Each structure stands twice: as structure tokens, then as C-alpha cells.
């Protein structure tokens, strides 16, 4: 089977779309009218998104927009994060980057501050600065196999010494209908790249088109459908699972379009906006803390395989205890601190491979020891974490 020229088709179509509106790529999206006033008219009109992830951002955050196009989401985000925040837009199409950079000074003048910049790169390779690579290749064109190998070595060096986006540097990653344009073999890497650049405690808010059925091969081999955000769409369930596989937690659907945007060969394509967090990685420690699932369901299963029934006290490690007090979990649980605090430096390792009820005596006085044989274990015990960690 001949490989699909996915990236070529996407570059070509969006290069044209940077100069004039491509009707086949547009979807009706409602944005906050007061935020649109600061944008040039041509930026407002040039909209290839399917949602508005910027509305979920917070003041002061450092934001990365993947597949930023003409910069519309970046300019909306700039107003939400404010002058104390920062927005970086990434796009692989030079024409889109040029259009966005032309608009940036206009927006900055209207806002009274400049907090947006645009960089050329690919979301599946956020360490490689394509403009820096372009400059090097212009000076040293590829004319032989040796030159090609030297270019590969140069790209590897740029990723390490001058990364486009550094690891652990971003508070929130957003994207508006761009992930479905990534070629299939690189898509897994794109999710891991989002995870890499986020700070611990950071999150992604992604709007993308998804399908309700698997897409047949003949549709996947159609460059027109792929560049049109159709045949590259993931199914609703595989889209969320991709974030879990990359190490994210707290994955939830923020918005799902009721009506499909398009129906092709009986397959429905609609916009989905999801949120997911980074930060559950690390060791697990025992500090005699307990949580109680409030309901309304009889029981829930968390991302680490721990099944918890409504109303029972469950033993959790300190890391899980802290995570569940934050969004999106905090309204789901009651939190029980031990009477005598155990400093983290004095805490023992916690075995996160088991799901156990917490005996009330364990939280009342730290001197009372409850052995694993005596401590009641949930009838639906699961092994979710390995090696005593929830990562």
C-alpha cells in the first residue's frame, strides 16, 4: 500500500487557506463577542476550528496552541491569560505563521500589551524548531546521502540544544481541530509531546473532530478527506484513551456537539472538547489518609484500577489524596485527615496495587498499626498500579 501523503496534503491545503477562506474547512463556532473586538477582521473571518478551548484558560497561564493557523485562538487566549500570561502558537505551515505574525502587532496595540508569539513546528515534534532547521539547510543544502545524514544529525542536535518548546514549561496546551491532521504513524508521539512540555499539574484542553465509528481504509487514503479534517478523525473512545495512554489523568469531556458536523458514508463526525491533566507520576507514600466516594453512582473505577463503592472509607497514598482534592475530582469525595500528621519524610511506601478500606482507627491515632491481614479489603480489589506507584 502506498503511504498517504498526509502532511503534504495538509500543508498544501492550509497554505491556500492562509490567503483565502477555504469553505470546506469551516465549522460554525461561537466565540465571546467582546474578545473578537481586538482581532483584525481577516483573523475573525479565517476560522478553521471546531470549538473554543481558550474559554477554559485562566489568568497568568503560559499557554501553547498547537496548529494555531492564523492565530485566532492565540489572540483570544491572550486576553484571557492577560498581561501576566503568555501564549505561544505553533504551526507547520509557513503561510499561516506569516499571517499570524502580521496580525500580532495590531492585536498587541489594541490590548495594550504583547504576550503572543508564533513559532514554526510540528505538534508531533515540539522540540524541533523548523525555522532554525530551514536556515541551516539553506546554508548547507542536501545534495547527497551524507548531507541528508548530516541534516538528521543537525535536527537531533537542535532538539536537545535549542528546543522549540522546552520540557515542563507550559501550564496549558490547547488545540482547535488540528490533532486529526497529524499523520497516523506520528499521532501517538503528538500526545506524548503534549505531555512532555506540560509542567506537573498542567493540563490540555483540546477541541477536535471525532467519529462515532471506525473509518474505513479507503476514506483514510483520500488526501482531500484527510486535509478536510474528516478521515483523520479518531473515534470518540480512542481519542480519550490516547490521552490516558500518554500518562494523563482526570480525563473528561467538557463539551460534545449534539448534532454531527458532517456525515460521510453513514459515519458521524462531531466536535468534542476534552480536558486532561499531568501530575500523577511519582512514588506513593502512606500517611493514613482516607477518602469517601460521595456518589451518586454505587461505585466508580479510577484511572489506576481502584474500584470504590459509595460511602466506604478507602486508604489512599498521599499523592492520590492530594490529586483528588483538585479539579476535576474534588466534588466527588470526602477527605479524612489523620489525627496525628505523618510528615512526608517519615512516611512509609504505600502499596497502590491494592484497593483497601481504611479502618477508622488508622486515622484516629497513628500508633495503632493495622496489618494487611486485619485491614478490610474491598471485595472488588484491583491491581491498578505497579511497583508501588500510580504512574
Give an overview in words.
The protein is an alpha/beta fold and 391 residues long. It has two domains: 237 residues, Rossmann fold (3-Layer(aba) Sandwich); 80 residues, Ribosomal Protein L9, domain 1, CATH 3.40.5. The chain is built from 13 helices and 16 strands. Helix 4 links the parallel strand 1 and strand 2. The longest helix is centred in the N-terminal third of the chain and has 18 residues.
List the helices and strands and how they pair.
Blueprint: H1 6-17, H2 33-36, H3 41-45, E1 62-66, H4 72-81, E2 86-91, H5 94-111, E3 116-120, H6 130-139, H7 145-161, E4 170-176, H8 184-197, E5 198-211, H9 217-220, H10 223-227, E6 234-235, H11 236-245, E7 249-256, E8 262-264, E9 267-277, E10 285-286, E11 290-293, E12 299-301, E13 307-309, E14 313-315, H12 318-323, E15 333-336, E16 348-349, H13 360-364
Parallel strand pairs: 1-2, 1-4, 2-3, 4-5, 5-6
Antiparallel strand pairs: 5-9, 7-9, 8-9, 10-16, 11-14, 11-15, 12-13
Helix pairs in contact: 6-7
Features:
391 residues; alpha/beta; Rossmann fold; Ribosomal Protein L9, domain 1; nine-stranded mixed sheet; three-stranded antiparallel sheet; 13 helices
Offer a quick outline of the entry.
This protein has 13 helices and 16 strands.
Amino acid at each position: 500500500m502506498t503511504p498517504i501523503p498526509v502532511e503534504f496534503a495538509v500543508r498544501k491545503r492550509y497554505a491556500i487557506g492562509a490567503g483565502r477562506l477555504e469553505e470546506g474547512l469551516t465549522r460554525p463556532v461561537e466565540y465571546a463577542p467582546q474578545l473578537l473586538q481586538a482581532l483584525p477582521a481577516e483573523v475573525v473571518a479565517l476560522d478553521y476550528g471546531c470549538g473554543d478551548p481558550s474559554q477554559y484558560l485562566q489568568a497568568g497561564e503560559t499557554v501553547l496552541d498547537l496548529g494555531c493557523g492564523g492565530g485566532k485562538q492565540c489572540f483570544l487566549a491572550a486576553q484571557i491569560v492577560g498581561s501576566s500570561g503568555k501564549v505561544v502558537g505553533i504551526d507547520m505551515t509557513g503561510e499561516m505563521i506569516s499571517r499570524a505574525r502580521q496580525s500580532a502587532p495590531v492585536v498587541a496595540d489594541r490590548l495594550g500589551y504583547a504576550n503572543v508569539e508564533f513559532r514554526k513546528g510540528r505538534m508531533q515534534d515540539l522540540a524541533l524548531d523548523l525555522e532554525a532547521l530551514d536556515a541551516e539547510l539553506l546554508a548547507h543544502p542536501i545534495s547527497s546521502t551524507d548531507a541528508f545524514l548530516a541534516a538528521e544529525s543537525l535536527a537531533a542536535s537542535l532538539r536537545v540544544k535549542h528546543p522549540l518548546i522546552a520540557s515542563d514549561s507550559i501550564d496549558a496546551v490547547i488545540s482547535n481541530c488540528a490533532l486529526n491532521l497529524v499523520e497516523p504513524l506520528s499521532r501517538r508521539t503528538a500526545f506524548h509531546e503534549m505531555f512532555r512540555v506540560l509542567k506537573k499539574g498542567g493540563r490540555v484542553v483540546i477541541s477536535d473532530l471525532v467519529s462515532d465509528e471506525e473509518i474505513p481504509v479507503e476514506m483514510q487514503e483520500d488526501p482531500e478527506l484527510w486535509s478536510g479534517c474528516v478521515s483523520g478523525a479518531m473515534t470518540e473512545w480512542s481519542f480519550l484513551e490516547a490521552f490516558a495512554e500518554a500518562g494523563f489523568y482526570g480525563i473528561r469531556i467538557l463539551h460534545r456537539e449534539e448534532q454531527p458536523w458532517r456525515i460521510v458514508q453513514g459515519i458521524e463526525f462531531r466536535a468534542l472538547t476534552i480536558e486532561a491533566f499531568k501530575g500523577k507520576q511519582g512514588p506513593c507514600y502512606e500517611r493514613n489518609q482516607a477518602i469517601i466516594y460521595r456518589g451518586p453512582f454505587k461505585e466508580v473505577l479510577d484511572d489506576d484500577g481502584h474500584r470504590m463503592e459509595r460511602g466506604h472509607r478507602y486508604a489512599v497514598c498521599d499523592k492520590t489524596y492530594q490529586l483528588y482534592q483538585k479539579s476535576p475530582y474534588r466534588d466527588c469525595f470526602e477527605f479524612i485527615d489523620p489525627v496525628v500528621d505523618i510528615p512526608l519524610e517519615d512516611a512509609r511506601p504505600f502499596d497502590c496495587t491494592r484497593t483497601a478500606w481504611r479502618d477508622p482507627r488508622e486515622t484516629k491515632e497513628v500508633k495503632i498499626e493495622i496489618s494487611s491481614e486485619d485491614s478490610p479489603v474491598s471485595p472488588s480489589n484491583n491491581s491498578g498500579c505497579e511497583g508501588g506507584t500510580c504512574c
